[in-house]
Amino acid sequence: MKIVNFLYLSILVLCCQTGFSQTIWQGQYQSYRILVSGDFDSKKDSLSFSIPELGSECKIAFKVAADSVSFKNDMYGYTFKGKYNTDKTAVTGIFNNYSIPNAVIVLKKQTEIKPLFFAQHPQKPYPYEVKDFTFSGKNTKLTYGATLTLPKNKKKYPLAILISGTGQHDRNYTFMGRESFTVLADYLARSGIASLRVDDRGFGKTTGDFENATTGDFANDIEEEIEYLKSDKNVDATHIGLIGHSEGGMIASIVSSRNKDIKFMISLSGVGVSGLEMLNLQNTAILKSFNFTDEVVAKQMELYNILFKAVYDTKDDESVKPIMETKLKEWMQKQDSVTLKKVQLWDGRDQTFLYRYGKDADRKWYRYTIHYNPEDYLPKITVPVMIANGDKDIQVPAVENINSFKKYLKVKDLTTKIYPGLNHMYQHCITCTQKEVKEIDEVFAPEVLEDISKWILVRYKK
After folding, report:
1. Percent of the chain with pLDDT over 70
2. Residues 429, 422 contacting (CB under 8 angstroms)
């Protein structure tokens, strides 16, 4: 079992797009696009088929009747049977495969491949202004690709900088095709609140080295965004605030503790505990979500905490790999074969585990986050703060983190809320595992969007 990185969200969206030059029939099931290249009425023996998010591409044999279409690929187990609509611009049917069983799919006729789409994604024309641009950071010397969303016909408004969580993301905070920040910016603008969202370092139109950057560097990026907003004469920068999700909540805490231009802070599943405690809480919750027994979870966490402490105690300029190898060997020697099999460290798997975790543990980002101490930042924050979590969040467990925010924050205007039934990405969930995120069509729970907007507007009016 691989140790789950601090605030780690594994993004497995493979951008493997086929270069279509003909008619495209495109459908969608959850986080997967179903693409057929070519015309079903053609005289060809086969057409090209792909599911970009699975990295799969093949040929399909197809049959067409007066009002129906079917196709299959025996090697990959793809089958589809459907019927045309009246003008033959769409085919509705059942798609079946090992990964996507018995799914109702609507294949629509397109002239180009479309991105994944979910009902909450806003569609043009927008009742607000959207400006895409780039700007330069004075201190970081980086170029930032950004989108500014402004309410129409308003000269005065609160303005929120949106800060994404762990991992390298585009400005829309796209995760499994769901654009969380596009949805959030849309709701804010309709409520009279402006927002700025920016590509992460080394992504989109933002330059820089993401792999060697730390959370502290990302906080510096937010400072550059603040300075830009203050310099733009067409923007009202008198009431700037931060909305950070996951690691973005930690970044918001760091910036809010030192930047006097910040007027409010919202932490969505942000970290309120120390780095070491966060690792313990997060990995325990995730292991339990896999339905391991309490005995197995306890044993795995016994080892993990030994390794976490080894990383914590290692100097920044030293590799922790030799120390971890010794610690792991010592721990394994104390266990019997039954235990080692239960924790999946049998038959050479310990070396695979060590290799994977060692690569992460030597990263500057990991060293920074494991040493994070909320006491260094939270007591210095003086602006109104809203802290939110979903009660089904296994990345940032709600109760412990919110209690820590309450302990260290000294602000008079503090709002905390735990939302029932929501996971880390603020979706209403059922199993609430990491895997389920891609199976939920909801992008952002409406009640959270509403609470965020109302909370900001109340503080702005004051």
Report:
1. 95
2. yes
DSSP state of 243: E
Q: Which positions ≥6 away from 192 have C-beta within 8 Å?
A: 151, 154, 157, 457
Separation of alpha carbons 131 and 133, rounded Å? 6
Between CA 30 and CA 117 the distance in angstroms is 9
pLDDT of 5 higher than 90: no
Report which secondary-structure segment, H or E, holds 449.
helix 446-461
Which ranges constitute the DSSP H helices of 98-245?
180-190, 215-231
Question: Is 28:101 a contact under the CB 8 Å cutoff?
Answer: no
Label the pairing between strands 90-96 and 103-110. Answer: antiparallel
The pLDDT of residue 178 is 95
Q: pTM for the whole thing?
A: 0.89
In degrees and rounded to multiples of 5, residue 165 shows phi and psi of -90, -165
Q: How far apart are CA 131 and CA 147, in angstroms?
A: 5
Query: Cβ distance 113 to 35 under 8 Å?
Result: yes
- Report residue 368 CA to chain centroid gap: 20
DSSP state letters, 69-82: EEEEETTTTEEEEE
Amino acid at 404: S
